[in-house]
Amino acid sequence: MVYTRKNVSTLTSAERRRFVTAMLEVKRRGEYDEFVRRHIDYYVSDGEGGLRAAHMAPSFLPWHRCFLLDLENALRRVDSGVSVPYWDWTRDRTPASAPWTNDLLGGDGRRSDRQVMTGPFAYAQGQWTIKEGVTDGAFLMREFGRPRKPIQLPTLASLNAALSDPVYDTAPFDSTTRRGFRNRLEGWGHGVGNATWENHNRVHRWVGGHMLGGASVNDPVFWLHHAFVDLQWSRWQMLHRGAPYLPERPPGPGDSQHRRIVARREKMPPWGVTPESMEDHSLIYRYA
Questions:
Q1: Residue 255: how many CB atoms within 10 A of its CB?
Q2: CA 10 to the chain's CA centroid
Q3: What is the CA angle 238-241-247, rounded to 5?
Q4: How far is CA 174 from CA 22, 115, 190, 214, in A?
Q5: 132: part of which helix (H) or strand (E)?
Q6: Containing H/E element for 224?
Q7: Positive or negative, the Cα torsion across 8, 214, 123, 76?
Q8: Whole-angstrom Cα distance, residue 117 to residue 109?
């Protein structure tokens, strides 16, 4: 049965409560920290050797689609009526808007140490202790807008610029790629300072705290953010019908990306599914 992912700003109080309850139960069971570890393990950058599957590569979108589905399946094992809502950061742009309410994700971190003090995921509530990450801190951290180096959330114009690109991805298929929908959405920009970050990446920078780097899954907003990113892939496909995931074929031995990226019909770790098989989600879920 096809289920629906809703805009977080439209959730009823009961839907918010069920989502939070399911998330906390997945955390209590120890499953959630496995998701954090998996994302850390697959956060491979251009400068590292080996395969890049999750970031800085064409498979950024299908990889995170699989990742979202795994989390969603874990939630639905707790409550079959729960799905991951999406956060439209082009519209809900302030700390007072969804999803930062006290009955959902809580708000910003306090100034002294960036610790989140409100909502069900605050450390003081006793149900959301950080166990996997790059620091030793046990509490969830945020720093909205990075006051010391201020940054704004992406605009609708920035998102539409990515959606308007008719090609999925182009060589060299990494963070330096200047054309193609994938990197314009993923957001490895060009320039200095905040110009370096666009769309998806800029959201991670704006939230700050644990949303910076490979351990970003520790913040539950990760999933709402990536649900919106996933929605953009669907919208791009509708705007550019027939435009496929690229590259179609693996780069050859003489190419700098040989064995470093996943082609359309190659298996994508850790699931062993192909990007091609993830291009259509209509038999699993839809967006409201």
A1: 15
A2: 20
A3: 110
A4: 36, 34, 13, 17
A5: none
A6: helix 221-239
A7: positive
A8: 7
Phi, psi torsion values for 46, nearest 5 degrees: -55, -40
The DSSP element (H or E) to which 3 belongs, if any, is strand 3-5
Name the nearest CA neighbour of 78 among 25, 150, 124.
25
Q: pLDDT tens across 91-139, in order?
A: 999 999 999 999 999 999 999 999 999 999 999 999 999 999 877 789 9
Ordered by where they begin, the domains of the chain are 3-287 (1.10.1280.10)
Distance CA 11, CA 15 (A): 6
Which amino acid type is present at position 199?
N
Tokens of 7: 């805009």
CA 288, CA 282: separation in Å to the nearest integer?
12
DSSP symbol at 89: T
What phi-psi label fits residue 218: left (phi over 0), alpha (psi between -120 and 50 degrees) or beta? alpha
Q: What is the pLDDT of residues 214-266, one digit of tens each?
A: 999 999 999 999 999 999 999 999 999 999 999 999 999 999 999 999 999 99
Number of other residues whose CB lies within 10 A of the CB of residue 280: 10
